[in-house]
Amino acid sequence: MSDALPDLKQKLKLLFGTLSKEKLIEWGERYLQAGWVSDSLDFFVEAEHGEGFKQVRELAVKEGDAFILRRCLKEMDVNADEGEWKALGENALKLGKLQFAREGFRLAGERKMLDRVDAMINPPKEEEETDLPMQAQGEA
Hints:
The protein contains 8 helices and no strands. By secondary structure, the protein is mainly α.
């Protein structure tokens, strides 16, 4: 096998063709190693590869990727483990992924952290000091 990953058309042929479970897993691993996490999950779903789901799930938490974690949980038909969304939120915050951090803290029920991230996303506007017109200051 060459190191190049197939284009979308070739990927779809592989994914929905007649590949064995082992080959689907192999392709999933290749995509995962290349950093194409969502694509790797496609192959793991098709192969019904539990270990692949576990790898992607752990990576999603580590990288603070709420989109991938949500998709992985949906494909596995399971709920997040205790503390999983909070850990994702903390990791996303460290990595500057504020929207994913917000989603993680929201789903973890971490109101204080949610408020903190909201303030980072939409900082309160500082009151602008303006000179009032002379008439407004009581001078006629």
